[in-house]
Amino acid sequence: MKKTKGLIIASFFAIYLIWGSTYLFNKVAVTELSPLFLASVRFLTAGILIMSIAKLLKASLVVTKKELINSIIAGFLFLVYGNGVFVWALKYVDSGFAALLASTQPLFVLFLMRLIDRKPLQKKSIIGVSLGILGMYLLVSQQEITTSKESLLGIFMIFTCVFSWSYGSVFVSKAALPKNFFVSTGYQMLSAGAILAIASLSFNEVWLSPLEWSFNVRVCMFLLIVLGGIIAFTAFNYLLKVVSTEKVSTSAYVNPVVALFLGWYVLDEKLTTQSIVASIIILTGVYFITSRKRR
After folding, report:
1. Is 53 exposed, middle or buried (0-12, 13-18, 19+ CB in 10 A)?
2. What is the pTM of this model?
3. How many helices (H) and strands (E) does the chain have?
């Protein structure tokens, strides 16, 4: 029991802090690399490494047809669309700002859970949703953003990515997937990496050899693969099976704070007063949603 509790705490630490830093790593890497190519290399490499780890641990890589199909679906929702398109949007949106938009995930999860389970919203949920919508409006209605068509497109695509990731979270919590979390993560990453590679070629993206990458991009890619991919994503899949989906989505509390600090400290990204106020309102809304009593 203690071992399980320790593993759950370590897994939350991974999705809270490690994923908060991946916004910065992706932002740096996408300045040199094409977004779909970047995501493809990241997930194919991480997938191969994870499968190698599973093999060393003598886990069976044999899965049923249903488990394989569900793994591909989950890989698409999380990694192809939820992450691949998100990385593309970072070309037009600051990493900290993107993290604040992503912090609305619990709102999407709540709506999807209520839609699927057909349960009425509690008072705290209604307050949380209302604050979340207000915060989102304040965040995206700023003049310096609305005057840029590229920024608006980036914001819209990020919201579709958040919806994809949220639906993926609900899907995985209920779907039949490989019981070994390394194997489950591995199949998701390999399938997503292959789809992203095909998409990258279809859009005629430039493919650069790792020998041509700058030192900073190599470091960021290494951290994205090892920390963001192998460690954090495996922890994420594990948590979706052992705790509630809504609790897992609370990473939205910490991720924006980590991303905002790193974006400001490393990339000198600016934060407007309206963005700060909006972020406080959004995170307060998230708190109301996740702190309500479970029925």
Report:
1. middle
2. 0.81
3. 16, 0
